[in-house]
Write a structure and sequence with these properties.
heterodimer; A: about 270 residues; alpha/beta; six-stranded mixed β-sheet; four-stranded antiparallel β-sheet; 9 helices; about 35% helix; B: about 350 residues; mainly alpha; two-stranded antiparallel ribbon; flat
Chain lengths: ~270, ~350
């Protein structure tokens, strides 16, 4: 299906003022179920957007659409001035070839709920596999950068460990280092702490907080209200495939305007 | 305190009674731990001893009478004569070459076809399906005969422009030797089976792995090569070992295209000296030996691809043997019931890191 409502202007290269992520009326269906029913959102450069909502609300699907892991069925989704999955030429949208899709994905880091580290590779190899095989970096360069990144996430001593020899929190931090190794302009976090034991959540959030402080643009699907309040610039509440409300986290959390937000927050806090 | 007479730990192992070497290794208050006894094992051992004695007797000491002449039941001297004969050794080389080529070709073909079969491109995927359908659906014996007799339908194979001039041509009558026919037939057949094994391995890998690879900007084939296939190996290897061992013996059907591999050579010799049984035993021993070597190789390959999937690799039989023999006076060491955990059931003793 072709996204509807193509605006007249052609999307050019990235411009400094333009938002990093812009979603207009994004729709996505799985069979008869429409999980995204027209999402309009904007994430500015260097901003952190946290998305909360009950399970099945479509928040993870939206995140995956940004990385083209899911193909949208309607609307417009633009990352850094480039439409996700399409190239616009005049009034036509050309679906991108795999090569192009891969090139754009390389610029967006993604962290998964279940880490998805490569179990046959050590922590160090997990971090270097992208730079070496996708960016064509030399092994030495990739390795020295990877060691730096592992140090940054506090796991310099785990470089030679395999994922199964690490705790969930350590694995997730390696996964963040792996994504950072590609030097992404945008980081997507899909419930990064939901599969972790409570006492391991803190380390992961700490790494994410320091990333945010360094000016990384982040979209975080999370249930960590505390993180959303302190680190997020915007908080979005989604339910049943639509954005119910969004705004500065403190405002949304302190005085939710919508009844559904209130109910959700009261159950969470 | 009266101490029990010291028993060697080796004897303890052999008698199945593992006594605690020191009282302080029993539970804290000095109680002795008595392991479970297994009297049934002794009964089975006694029974097996009788069976083995009977087997040895039949193999080496019994005789048969034919036309009043007494001769050994098993003609070991003939087996001994042919086992290392140049004829048999040459045939062994042919068998091994054929096995290696057929499996190498089959694995490469299998990986390609499996990836084709899982391709999002429907044309590619259907081509793979048709290939598998055909080569699994016809007997390998017939396939070999077909390739050997290909010159009947294609006396000449030439490379050139379709319906135009040919650049280069081959006379199939001379080109299709028994060895080539056997190799081509076995590779194509094995490729079809291997592709299903590889496909099973690929689909066993968590889809999240492919997504993680894609999110790093890898394309489908790169993700396959770097992420999916290495993990699929754990699932692919055991049946592949099975296929290899099976292939070693399947090469014997190359005798239908009169290739002098082990079986056909044995048949040939037997036809001349009228001693089929000793010759079949001779080649069976060779097949057994090669299979045994392959099984050792398979063990180490599987171990290699298990890295990362278990927290700690279990010791190899060699390491276990070495540890078993190096029993220290304090009773540590010996054949542990669990890898890395040595001690009596119910009271496992974790060895410090340097002891593993």
């Amino acid at each position: 299906m072709t996204p509807a409502s193509v605006p007249p202007e052609t999307t050019g290269g990235p411009s400094v003022g333009a938002p990093m992520v812009m979603a207009q009326g994004v729709r996505k269906s799985f069979g008869p179920l429409e999980v995204l029913q027209g999402i309009d959102l904007e994430v500015g450069r260097g901003q952190v957007m946290c998305i909360i909502g009950p399970s099945g609300s479509g928040k993870s699907t939206f995140l995956r659409c940004i990385n083209h892991l899911e193909k949208i069925d309607g609307g417009r989704l633009v990352v850094d001035g480039e439409m996700v999955g399409y190239r616009q030429r005049g009034r036509r949208l050309h679906e991108l070839k795999e090569r192009e899709v891969a090139r754009r994905r390389a610029e967006v880091g993604m962290v998964f709920q279940h880490f998805n580290l490569f179990p046959h590779l050590t922590a160090l190899q997990n971090v270097t596999i992208g730079p070496i095989n996708v960016k064509g970096e030399s092994k030495e360069e990739a390795k020295s950068r990877a060691l730096g990144l592992l140090e940054r996430v506090g796991l310099a001593d785990k470089a030679a460990s395999y994922p199964r020899q690490m705790s969930g929190g350590q694995q997730q931090r390696v996964a963040i280092a792996r994504a950072l190794a590609m030097e992404p302009k945008l980081m997507l976090f899909d419930e990064p702490t939901s599969a972790l034991d409570p006492e391991l959540v803190g380390d992961v959030l700490e790494v994410m907080r320091s990333l945010a402080e360094d000016g990384m643009t982040m979209v975080v699907v999370t249930h960590e209200i505390g993180f959303a309040r302190e680190v997020g610039d915007t908080l979005v509440f989604m339910d049943a495939g639509v954005v119910i409300e969004s705004g500065p986290p403190r405002q949304v959390l302190a005085g939710p305007r919508e009844e559904r937000t209130k109910t959700f927050l009261s159950r969470l806090l | 305190m009266p101490r029990r007479s010291p028993t060697s730990p080796v004897v303890e192992r052999l008698t199945g009674r593992r006594r605690l070497a020191r009282r302080d290794r029993a539970s804290g208050d000095g109680l002795e731990v008595v392991p479970v006894r297994h009297p049934g094992r002794w009964v089975v051992v006694a029974f097996l001893c009788v069976l083995v004695a009977m087997l040895v007797h039949t193999l080496f000491f019994s005789h048969v009478y034919t036309n009043g002449i007494r001769r050994p039941r098993f003609d070991w001297s003939t087996i001994d004569h042919f086992f290392g004969s140049s004829q048999v050794l040459q045939a062994l080389v042919v068998t091994i070459e054929l096995t290696v080529l057929a499996m190498a070709g089959g694995i490469v073909l299998g990986i390609i076809v499996a990836i084709m079969r899982l391709s999002p491109n429907p044309i590619v995927s259907n081509c793979a399906w048709v290939y598998i359908w055909f080569f699994r659906g016809t007997p390998v014996l017939v396939q070999l005969l077909f390739w050997f007799n290909i010159n009947v339908i294609f006396p000449k194979v030439s490379l050139g422009i379709p319906f135009g001039p040919s650049l280069f041509s081959v006379d199939m009558q001379t080109a299709m030797t028994p060895f080539l026919a056997a190799t081509v037939g076995l590779v194509l057949n094995e490729g079809a089976y291997m592709s299903e094994i590889v496909r099973a391995g690929i689909v066993s890998v968590d889809p999240g792995q492919i997504e993680a690879a894609q999110s790093l900007g890898m394309r489908r084939l790169a993700a396959m090569r770097l992420v999916v296939l290495p993990q699929a190996m754990r699932v692919i290897l055991p049946p592949t070992g099975n296929e290899t061992i099976s292939m070693l013996k399947t090469t014997s059907i190359a005798s239908v295209v009169s290739l002098f591999e082990l079986t056909y050579t044995a048949e040939n010799i037997a036809a001349a000296n009228y001693k089929p049984i000793p010759l079949y035993i001779t080649v069976s021993l060779w097949y057994l030996m090669i299979t045994s070597i392959m099984m050792v190789g398979q063990y180490y390959l599987e171990r290699h691809y298990a890295r990362g999937s278990v927290r700690q690799l279990p010791p190899t039989p060699l390491q276990r043997l070495r540890r078993g023999l190096l029993i220290r006076p304090d009773g540590r060491g010996g054949f542990g019931r669990f890898p890395g955990v040595i001690g009596v059931e119910g009271a496992p003793v974790m060895l410090p890191e340097d002891d593993r």
